[in-house]
Amino acid sequence: MATITDDAAAASAKPFDIVATYNELLRSDPDLTMPIAAIEALVLLLTQSASSTISETLDLLEKSTAHLKKSIPNPIGLSAGTDLFQRYLITTLQRPGQLGPAGDFKAIRTHLLSNGRLFIRRAKESRHKIADFGRGFIRDGSTILTNGGSRAVSALLQKAADEEGGPSAVRFRVIYVLSSTATTSGDSSEEPEGMKTVRALREKGVPVSTIPESAVAYSLGKADMVIVGAEGVVENGGIVSRMGTYQIGLLAKAIGKPFYVVAESHKFVRLYPLGQYDLPIVQHVIDFQSEEDIAESTQQSSEATKNEDRPIELPLSASVDFTPPHLISALITDSGVLTPSAVSEELIKIWF
Amino acid sequence: MAEPTGPALTAPSPAPTPASEPQPATENAPQTLPIRDSKPAKPIAKDATAPADAAGNADKALTPAELKKKAKAEKAARRAREKVEKEQVGGPAGGAAPGAGGQARAPTTPKKDAAGGAAQKGGKAAPPRRGSGPGPFGAQSAPVEQKKKKDDKKVAVFGHLYGQQRRTTVAGAGKEVHPAVLALGLQLRDYVVCGSSARCVATLLAFKRVVESYTTPLGTSLARHLTTHLSHQITYLSTCRPLSITQGNAIRALKLAISSIDPSTPESSAKATLCDFIDSFIREKITVAGQVIAASAAQKVRDGDVIVTFAGSNVVKDTLLLAHNQGKRFRVSIIDSRPLFEGKSLARALAKAGLDVQYTLVHATTHAIKDATKVFLGAHAMTSNGGLYSRVGTALVAMSAKERASGVEIPVIVCCETVKFTDRVALDSIVVNEIADADELVSSLPPQQLTGLPDPGANTPAPADNKKGGKPTTAAPTLETPASSSSTSPLANWKETPNLQLLNIMYDVTPAEYVDMVVTEMGSLPPSAVPIVHRISTNL
């Protein structure tokens, strides 16, 4: 019995490549976050699969989720979406009534799919909600230090800038920390992450200053607050985000400036890292090398380029760090402004 | 007042704990009584009031200083007598307090004292104050003195925790108490069944036998009568050793299950339901919970870790064994403490499984912490403000892990089933705690001495010591000999030794900020999430 369902799942998964769909979704819509892309890919998968029982559906879901997580170098953000979707499916299926285990499976399926779409639409709207909540934090005459390419931060800042000239005119300045790793390691033609936001803000008349990461401590004295985005919000209220956020958090704490995190609530991950090196991903940020090693690695890389099958590794520009909760003043999410300790409460509410 | 005479007098008189104590007590605690008395001491001789006059006649020959002395002695005696009366009437609550004196009593149980003592102070205690002069002086001072000596041995700050003496035999237990419960009570008392999970399981199993052998008396229903029948068992257990949080939670759940039984259910099926309930409670809340916790906590163990743990927790043991079986390579450093030495069995179990184990006592904490990478702790309970209530010494280990000199924080991980969560709040280790028999601290076997042993018989080791060098080494054995020759611990006569108190406290509270993560069967949480999970797990 089990082998038959396994075969069926494998057969149905074959024509549908979840990883390609996920990547395609992310590429096609620049506003899409990783967890939402993952959920959308899973919904697409379910529409295309021919599963006819609940256990078959769940099995298929589990397999493709595992496959997806394995093929993406940094599955932290993505796992928030897949876990949430899986949890949602299970609770819907366990609920008594017409949609429960006793109900008609086809009805259950259509319900799931339509609700999945609804969820995606809502998640996309959450950024506007966050902007509404967070707008109050940006006061007239304040200077905000931010980094990375978070779309939620960008939406929040643009929302605040849009109101200039309106009844609640907010005049503020932005210090934008541009990552140097992207320019040094990648192509020189590629502009650093965040330049798009900088341009958009300047267009709206917001004075923006761009600084390298090395100037953060120097510039923090001029800033009133720090606002950053996050890739994932973990259970203890800390965040996993672009490399360099942790040091900004430490500096902000040392100087005594508030440190706010902007994140959609679907980015809450069931993960509990105890420190920088406890994340479930492999990053080679620290790489000790002697002269000998360098010579060896250059030789190897020249061979590897010929072979073209090296394992995927997170490039330095895409690496992440963990900012512990005690450095965070508040999290601005679409379910309100939360303290770090309230995150676990939100997560428990979702999961139990 | 009376600085030179004061101390001289307090020593023979039945004064509580330190010599300095009675003075602040007389000035502060029951302010209206003593101050008025201490001043009238002189006027009394000349003034009116009949009993004072009678006393005054005898006093005439005394010097003013002696008068003061006498007034003081009277006061002390009177206070002591009030306490005796209170003890007789007020039961354990009143009996616990007197050793503590006025200051310690005030913050801890002000209401009880006010309720229990107010009537006596007003009614019984007041009249003897007026006519106290000759009364207590002669007749009552002897019994009072004995009483004092006993009270002396209670540490003031923890005075409210002493309560009644732990039960030592089954004699006097009610006839309702089931034999299984009788046996369990003694096992609990002697730490044969120790650890909050084990105590909870053993209690539930004993109660299961109580339920099995129970027959509803005529004229009542099972749902109504079984609860009272159980409370006899519970009272007996709590006289053997105060109930743990887990026991309390389990009993609460069991009573809820009993009261929710429909009275029309036939007795046999009701009993079967209850037995099933007990079995599933043990399975869900403790057995399976422990496995789930071990599985998720073992994920946190990495290759090359040095894991510090304190005392012996079953869940921590399971975690470490599981991680070891998963092929992870790590070292374990166990910190243990007197007098229970719970870490010894943990050390043996881990070493037997092939783990690298280091065992030290709590005074070597800083050394053990030095190369630690993670701290795993068990729990007795988790309080609603995130505090970890666990074997005394846990806080020390957690705090030293957080405040290591190099500044690198070591994550402190607590493994705890949700059945150990409580809605109580603990701000310190004083208000809620348990005091064990202080004799446990005394009766330890003297360490095997290699240098000291031949000393009393022959003096051969002396030259050997001289070779090694200086005076300190030769001085050491001579210092040791009196202790070893008496063959008992120097503390053996602590009850007769004045000014000596022993404190054998069982638990302490680690504040939430020293705990990084709580691993429960419902997932890993920050300590701040304890009340939420407690609410969820009790409502289900």
UniProtKB/TrEMBL annotation, chain A:
Primary location: cytoplasm
Annotated keywords:
Cytoplasm, Initiation factor, Protein biosynthesis
Per the record, the similarity remark reads: Belongs to the eIF-2B alpha/beta/delta subunits family.
Know the name of this protein? Translation initiation factor eIF2B subunit alpha
What does the UniProt entry say about where the protein is found?
Answer: Cytoplasm, Cytosol
- Entry GO terms, CC: cytosol; eukaryotic translation initiation factor 2B complex
Going by the entry's taxonomy, the superkingdom of the source organism is recorded as: Eukaryota
Automatic annotation (TrEMBL), chain B:
One Pfam family cited in the UniProt record for this chain: IF-2B
**UniProt keyword list:** Cytoplasm, Initiation factor, Protein biosynthesis
Q: What is the lineage of its organism?
A: Eukaryota, Fungi, Dikarya, Ascomycota, Pezizomycotina
| Disordered: region residues | 1-152, 446-493
Protein name as annotated: Translation initiation factor eIF2B subunit delta
**Record field: compositional bias (Gly residues):** 91-102
Q: Tell me the protein family, please.
A: Belongs to the eIF-2B alpha/beta/delta subunits family.
Is Cytoplasm set as a keyword in this record?
yes
Where in the sequence does UniProt note compositional bias of the Low complexity kind?
1-12, 41-61, 115-131, 472-492
- What molecular function does GO assign, one term? translation initiation factor activity
* Compartment(s) of residence: Cytoplasm, Cytosol
Bias class Basic and acidic residues marks the residues at 73-88
Assembly and partners?
Answer: Component of the translation initiation factor 2B (eIF2B) complex which is a heterodecamer of two sets of five different subunits: alpha, beta, gamma, delta and epsilon. Subunits alpha, beta and delta comprise a regulatory subcomplex and subunits epsilon and gamma comprise a catalytic subcomplex. Within the complex, the hexameric regulatory complex resides at the center, with the two heterodimeric catalytic subcomplexes bound on opposite sides.
| CC terms in the record's Gene Ontology section | cytosol
Q: Does the keyword Cytoplasm apply?
A: yes
